[in-house]
Amino acid sequence: MALNFMGRKLRNHTIAPATKQRAWETTNLSKFPDDSPGLTRATQTRPTVTVLEELPGSVPDLREDVKRCQPCTIHNTRLDPDTDTGKIRVFCRIRPLNRAEGMKGSNFIVSCLDDYSVVLETPRGQREFQFDRIFNAESTQEEVFQDSSRLIQSAIDGYNVCIFAYGQTGSGKTFTMVGDKERKNPGIIPRTFTKIFDIIQENQSKFEFKVSAYMLELYNDRLQDLFVSPAEAFGKKIEIKKDKKGLVFAQGAETKEAASAGELFALFEQGCANRHIAATKMNMESSRSHLIVGIMVESRNLTNGSVSFGKISLVDLAGSERAARTGAKDDQLKEANSINKSLSALGDVISALSTEQPHVPYRNNKLTQAMQDSLGGNAKTLMFVNISPAACNMEETLTSLIYATRVKAITNNAQRNMDNREIAQLKEVILKLRTGQPVEEEDV
Ligand SMILES: Nc1ncnc2c1ncn2[C@@H]1O[C@H](COP(=O)(O)OP(=O)(O)OP(=O)(O)O)[C@@H](O)[C@H]1O
Question: Which of 44, 189, 211, 332 has the highest count of CB atoms within 10 angstroms of its CB?
Fold first, then answer.
């Protein structure tokens, strides 16, 4: 425990030795170019800039992280109070101060009171926000994943799950969802792949599993299939549809099967190579599109023949931003306008849901159509609101925290997607008939 600059108790904050901090300030601040996006570990001791040592670059050992996660509960009908309350859960992650902010001498204006409360200093006074969990600049990717990973278990149990990241450009959404560029600090998406196959391995004597995935980006109001080359994707029309249960699927998108976490990761890497990324003034490698990864897990109970279907949607939203601040021009301005249009449509949906309006404008944008079953629908949803700690980003941070507070008020109705043996058999027969395969007598 320590006291922060407002005299409140701080938890989970490592206080830097003042000498180390001063040494860094005098020797390193002048090294960075003006718009360098690189980050250093930052710790807050007082309302001035404190930027510390480089992040450790350890090679990830995902298996160890996964082992630490809670034990497998596949097909256990007991409700998990953390994930079955119906409300969308919201985690807030504060990233370390980056070099550009350090160079500007930008003050820290964000502090955690405890694991659940965050305080923002604004010109009109302090604003306090409560979330289901706060992760500070010191929080590791392992810690962040540990708190999210029980949702992966839910998906394997037959629920729809959505994890998405929201925040201004450069606030750490891609770092949280995907990880760093060097793949030394993998984020939620690669950790999810490992976790899925670890659960499968533990249960393969009792269940038969099938894992498949699709990967899309929403770029300039157009959905693009990332599993095909940009040239092939150009002529392809992807449409978001809903099945009878209200579950969203991407019609026209390639769905690929994967037999291991490695295969799933290879597919993901292939998809990432097809994404639109550009340098803006705010972030050297800014995602100019929304990324949507859908992973379907089908599991057949080998004893009673019942089949359950779970889907995990992992969404890395493009940054909310003011075009003027990002230095966008021409094509980039068009991208920024399209990003803002879709995020504002998402805001309208969130606002309608949180105030229980009879009409929710999902159809206004492809992003809200794609996220329809995750917001107010049949899914267990977790949102990350990523924020910068710096005074120069105060307005965007305040907007993001208000946005996230509204999301917290949304109630979903998560239900397990399950068919008994007979229905599962009939579905198989229909599939065989549709694809022209012979149907044997024992199939029916
Ligand atoms: N918690 C963190 N710890 C260490 N580095 C971080 C953290 N969060 C973000 N970064 C780094 O900050 C930079 C910007 O982060 P990132 O690309 O994730 O932002 P973003 O919100 O996805 O931006 P955009 O919307 O423009 O794509 C990256 O270099 C990233 O590695």
Answer: 44
149 lines ligand 1 (CB under 6 A): no
Q: Are 207 and 156 in contact (CB under 8 A)?
A: no
pTM: 0.77
- 45 CB near ligand 1 (under 6 Å): no
CATH superfamily of 2-443: Kinesin motor domain (3.40.850.10)
**Residue 171 CB less than 6 A away from ligand 1:** yes
The residue whose CA has the least distance to atom 5 of ligand 1 is 39
Helix axes of 141-148 and 188-203: crossing angle, nearest 10 degrees: 50
Report CA dihedral (132, 134, 135, 141) to the nearest 10 degrees. Answer: 10
Q: Which atom of ligand 1 is nearest to the CA of 94?
A: 1
- Residue from 175, 217, 320 whose mutation best tests the ligand 1 pocket (most atoms within 8 A of CB): 175
- ipTM score here? 0.98
- Residue-wise pLDDT for 138-151, tens only, equals 999 999 999 888 89
Domain limits, the chain: 2-443
Ligand 1 centre distance from Cα of residue 417 (Å)? 35
> Which residue has a Cα nearest atom 2 of ligand 1?
95
pLDDT digits (tens, 9 = 90+) for 83-100: 445 778 999 999 999 988
- CB half-sphere exposure, 203, CA atoms < 13 A: 25
What angle (nearest 5°) sits at the alpha carbon of residue 62, between those of residues 59 and 66?
155
What average pLDDT does the segment 357-367 reach?
93
Give the pLDDT confidence score for residue 355 in this predicted structure. 86
Judge whether residue 198 has pLDDT over 90.
yes
